[in-house]
Write the structure tokens for this entry.
Amino acid sequence: MNNNDIKNIVVVGGGTAGWLTAGILAAKCAREQGRDINITLIESATIGNVGVGEGTWPSLRTTLQALGVSESDFIRDCDATFKQGARFNRWAEDSDTDFYYHPLMLPANVGPLNTITHWLNKFNSSGLSYSQATCHQEAACEAGLAPKAITTPEYQGNLNYAYHLDTNKFSTFIKEHCVKNLNIIHKVNDVVGVRAEPDGAISALTLADGSELDGDFYIDCSGFSALLIDKHFKVPFIDKSDVLFCDSAVAVQCPYELEPDIASHTLSTATGSGWIWDIGLQSRRGIGHVYSSRHTSDEAAEQVLRNYIGEKARDLPVKAIKYTPGHREKFWIKNCVAVGLSAGFVEPLEASSILLVELSAYWIAEKLPLKNSGLSRCEQQFNDIFRYRWDSIIEFLKLHYCLSNRRDSQFWRDNTDPDSIPRELLNKLDMWQEKSPSILDFLSRADVFPLESYCYVLYGMNFKTTTHDPGDKNLKSTEHKINRQRKNLDALLSSLPKNRQLIDAIKKHGLQKI
């Protein structure tokens, strides 16, 4: 590979992954770092987006702000609502009363004891859940409240939050912003081939109209087609269906008959062969059944979804999706990196897909070398970091399944089989039976899901950890702080509007600019 400057970046594929990646590179490399680069995004006019997933992480707030997007405009144009976490129904037991929360707030620091030790010794036996005892967000979600008031400036909140959104509207919104405000060149054409250097590096893309598009660095955001990472470089795909069984989904868009309150969290309800997501947007609910085709038929899975929705689902068209859970053996090779579905996909549980796009794009923007000669160094580092991230996501998703006490179907019995659980996770679960989780159990800042997320799921799923006596003095001091914190809950809840109430106010008046 030559030692030329890296000036021309080509993003192959639009959609959420392509436009977010292009926008982040433009905002960070060109605007903040002052690099002399050109970014071209080429997308097909004939290949549509998957366009189903509608959940995000709080990181998207930072990304939209970095791109110079108005939060008010984003909410108006993308059918967006506020998300404060997820409510998991029927995951531990097949019962109407079984649920727990994975909120977006970190547990409060309550003093001389860590929150886990205090909860195990004081509140667990009293029926107060781990998330109820350690943060206010479960109460806010149960009350259908927004994370902030109309007077709170854009991207700020009384409680941490992400968004639910219409991904097709979001892709259009980000595309228009990138072209208009970030100087990204947009081309519509089909990539039909690659002209390569002797070592395999890409020198140009061959297009359907006979022309070529050349660049110095290529980002494959072409979705499941994986036009560059698979079709050209032939990078193997690592199948993870031995750990994560779900490989199919059926989804519907369910319009509101009236304008009901909007849940400020994702509803995730376990079924006999998978789980159902239920997301409230401004104009509709997005509802889908993620399931294992080894444990049920497509027809039965669709019927479970329609039964969940009820009578109004009778005439709703269903979108079917098939996928293999897993990821590429390598994500970066030569002068090309795969981002989004071309890199891999596991399942929509915990909404990690868009987050991985953001993490990948920020890494590339920060580390992309000035010259081609530095690419091999980045290739090794990126592959090591993101292989670890994919493995850690898979482990965390498996945690939701393997802790279940459900034995009502083969799907749940298979998920609790130790042979289906990653060895690293089994080791952690063995340790956590004797000692509560700590930051020392995690290897790297590259972990996507932190200690706190593990605790919400572990103790939401009724995981048992041996307790020890921390001493009366420490218990009383910590109990005083946690009780004082909970006394502030009523004041917080009374200050927050309903989720729809805030959305309607934003559409009418907009939020205050920072």
The chain has a mean pLDDT of 91. The chain is about 35% helix and 20% strand.
